[in-house]
Amino acid sequence: MKRLTHLERLEAESIHIMREVAAEATKPVMLYSIGKDSAVMLHLAKKAFYPSPPPFPLLHVDTTWKFKDMYALREKSAADAGMELLVHHNPEAEAQGINPFDHGPLHTDMWKTEGLKQALTMHGFDAAFGGARRDEEKSRAKERIFSFRTASHGWDPKNQRPELWNVYNTRKAKGESIRVFPLSNWTELDVWQYIMAENIEIVPLYYAAERPTYEYEGGLFMADDLDRLERVMGKKPDITMRKVRFRTLGCFPLTGAVESEAETLAEVVQEMLLTTTSERQGRVIDKDEGGAGMEKKKQEGYF
Amino acid sequence: MADTPASDPAYKVDALIAEDIEAYLQLHQNKGLLRFITCGSVDDGKSTLIGRLLYDSKMIFEDQLAALEADSKKVGTQGQEIDFALLVDGLAAEREQGITIDVAYRFFATEKRKFIVADTPGHEQYTRNMVTGASTADLAVILIDARKGVLTQTKRHSFIAHLLGIRHLVLAVNKMDLVDYDQSTFEHIVADYRSFAQEIGIAEFTPIPISGFKGDNIASAPSANTPWYTGPSLIEHLETVEIANAVAQAGSFRMPVQWVNRPNLDFRGFSGLIASGSVKPGDAVRIVPSGKTSTVDRIVTMNGDLDEAVAGQSVTLTLADEVDVSRGSVIAAADDPPESADQFEANVVWLSDQPLIPGRGYWLKLATQTVTATLAQPKYEIDVNSLEHLAAKTLDLNAIGVTEVTTDKPLTFAPYADSRQLGGFVLIDKLTNATVGAGMINFSLRRAQNVHWQSVDITRDQHAGMKNQKPAVLWFTGLSGSGKSTIANMVEKKLFRMNRHTFLLDGDNVRHGLNKDLGFTEQDRIENIRRVGEVAKLMADAGLIVITAFISPFRAERQMVRDMLPDGEFIEVHVDTPLEVAEARDVKGLYAKARAGQLKNFTGIDSPYEEPESPEVRIETTAMTPEEAADLVVDWLLRDS
Ligand SMILES: Nc1nc2c(ncn2[C@@H]2O[C@H](COP(=O)(O)OP(=O)(O)O)[C@@H](O)[C@H]2O)c(=O)[nH]1
């Protein structure tokens, strides 16, 4: 008898989920946000369909405000996987110059929430993989692996289907779609362990390095594009070089950096295990709207 | 005082994180995975117990803890002490808001295992949630309040866990602190439970006296308060109990094929999650249902070919021979393949507000196979509290019953007791696409191989070719008095004059013969249409153009007939006459009778008519003559000939 480890079991489950979608959905897509969870999800997709490339494209719903390192890895990862990369920019957000400084929560709402809906509708995707995990947040604990969305991308909590065994009901009416979360049962530690075990490339920003930083409204941020910051902030922020890293990755003016010495994967995990604040602290989106933030975002179709 | 978590070294390795992270990671790299469910009713201490498990295994961060401490003081039920229940009480809030009560999944880990906990509410109205949570669990923790002992709900929870095939039950006698850690109280409860467990066929269980709140016998045992207890602590037990995957590995090899991997002409792989047993290159395999045999050539993964793969792994196999394998096939050990059958006895749990309709066609999905299934009227329903067998005509939300399931194609399966993957199925409503039921196969009632189709030498195409026409079923549907029979008759006359071979099946004449045993209840109406559908199909097989005129009020049954026929041969003709118009015509005086209450279940009056959503032909009888309508249908039928 072979004793399967927890990572082997989680991997097998995720692969099984992806293959079900590939077999039963008409036009699936993988939402790719370039973070570590996306990296793991993409890696699993490659494994699920090897030696074929994954039979769906990657979709990045971009805000134009991501870190440069993220854009670089995005192009490389898609090419390595042999997958088509679709990048969507909400044209209205672009036209109105929506940015994280002047527009607050509207920035996320227009670029990401609206942008995602637009992209899904435009391409007619009926199933979209997302990298969300149940351990991320209390309201996620009861999220299904297959989450149904109405034709207008709404999430109706009363209308979700029971999931028994590993038998997934993927049927839906025309216009309706499903969000599929193959990493539902992974924890943050599982994700890191898997990255380590499988040697998965992640954005270097997860590792500590000397970076140009500035303080803004009590947080520490990285000046990834100083000229652009100057244009929207009206003046150049005061830059100090600090040894920092990021626990999660998003738009650079919204993603808090933490001072850190962790330069290797093991050190990053060590730091993660020893920190005493939950992962999403660094991201402004949750604090915006208290605990109900996630639930609300979900109903609006953010995920 | 609650134990401080740091004082419990049994599953603490914090020091290692700081001192030697590599060693820590090594230790955690090779953990196993156990899934379990906690069952208990409100106030048995379920949330407190789960909260403690998360807390003790450091799954709670400082910011969450600070919030927890503040909340404990504000709304907690334990005075100044930390109320662990608040960590997981999402469900309680939902209950108040009236949102669907769900299964919440929580995670924690010790150095030996990662755990996935399915947390479900315990009330009878949440049976379906418990069934869902139990379906993937290796083990169930049945919580009992030491002050209350074995209750009805304890029996219900145990029955469901057992029904869903959970092999390991833990009887967690909780709140021992409130009965002074009294040994005889504990033993009394265990004895009580044992006699009940034996009755329902639970051979073994592990009783543990605990206090979720104080921490006794959770991490280590025996606690100072229960020196008389000689068994393992809850965590120790969870860390060592056999995982269901180990049992699955011991079985014969079976892999339901999910996806055929065809990157180029030189590679043809079959991808799937191995349901049971193990496989090596060179192993002889049989493809079910085709029965063809071959040998495994390679086990392909991105990290290199494997020498062996076991139950629980997702792999891609290549075979030595070119055999026909597709999604839904099962690749199995050549000398011990699974059965195929099209009739079963199954335990069915109903998950929907809309009750089961015996005779109606539902999608049935089992592993990677999807077929149409009809369920007979249940043999009996099981009262989940008394476990008595009750007579039942249908199954309502949360009901559990035993019934016969018939499928339109043979299904490759294993009894649920042998394999969850090949014995468990879900039922899906064909119109709403909702998951309405879950079933567990007990055994097959007749082997598919025994009902060999009579193989015929003259094919369907030859029959049609002889008549020089394309067979079709013109299915007229509409209210009583809408004009179905009139138009259908005209269509037949026109086709007849054009030398087409036709036959008209009309509601009234079929009811006098073939279906004279049927009345007008929902179930009888469904059977009526099923029979007409089968007859129409045989006639279409004989090459005829069949014309039917039945009210056929339910979409699901019209869909069922459509599914019986080859694509394009079912032509739905909606004779669309508003109710007021049909009622005003009242050719047979039936509406008047129905209004007077002399006719029950009359379509349009006290029984619904579900309009076709996209019929091939729609006839507005208020806008055209029957003659024009008949031309419309004939033109549509012959449009490309
Ligand atoms: N004394 C004592 N109280 C407990 C224990 N476990 C739970 N409780 C209390 O019992 C009540 C209900 O607990 P809770 O975990 O919310 O129950 P649930 O409804 O089953 O989740 C709360 O007041 C808990 O603090 C225990 O082991 N000992």
Could you explain the architecture of this structure?
Chain A: Belongs to the PAPS reductase family. CysD subfamily. Chain A: Keywords: ATP-binding, Nucleotide-binding, Nucleotidyltransferase, Transferase. Chain A: Its EC number is 2.7.7.4. Chain A: It comes from Aurantiacibacter gilvus. Chain A: One of its GO terms (molecular function) is sulfate adenylyltransferase (ATP) activity. Chain B: InterPro entries: APS (IPR002891), APS_kinase_dom (IPR059117), CysN_GTP-bd (IPR041757), CysN_II (IPR044138), CysN_NoDQ_III (IPR044139), EFTu-like_2 (IPR004161), G_TR_CS (IPR031157), GTP-eEF1A_C (IPR054696). The complex is a heterodimer of chains A (303) and B (641). Chain A is globular, with a radius of gyration of 19 Å. Chain A has helices spanning 6-24, 36-49, 68-81, 91-96, 105-123, 188-198, 226-233, 265-274, 284-288, 293-300, and strands at 28-31, 58-61, 85-88, 127-129, 146-149, 177-180, 209-216, 219-222, 240-245, 258-259. Chain A has 303 residues and is α/β, with parallel strands linked by helices. In chain A, the strands form two sheets. Chain A has a six-stranded mixed β-sheet. A four-stranded antiparallel β-sheet of chain A has the order 8-7-9-10, with no helix packed on it. The N and C termini of chain A lie far apart (40 Å). Mean pLDDT of chain A is 87; it is low at 279-303. Chain A is built from ten helices and ten strands. Chain B is globular. Chain B has 19 helices and 28 strands. Chain B starts with 13 loop residues before the first helix and ends with a helix. Chain B has four domains: 31-242, Rossmann fold; 249-333, Translation factors (Elongation Factor Tu (Ef-tu), domain 3); 343-450, Translation factors (Elongation Factor Tu (Ef-tu), domain 3, Beta Barrel); 460-637, P-loop containing nucleotide triphosphate hydrolases (Rossmann fold, 3-Layer(aba) Sandwich), CATH 3.40.50.300. Chain B has 641 residues and is an alpha/beta fold. Bound molecules: guanosine-5'-diphosphate.
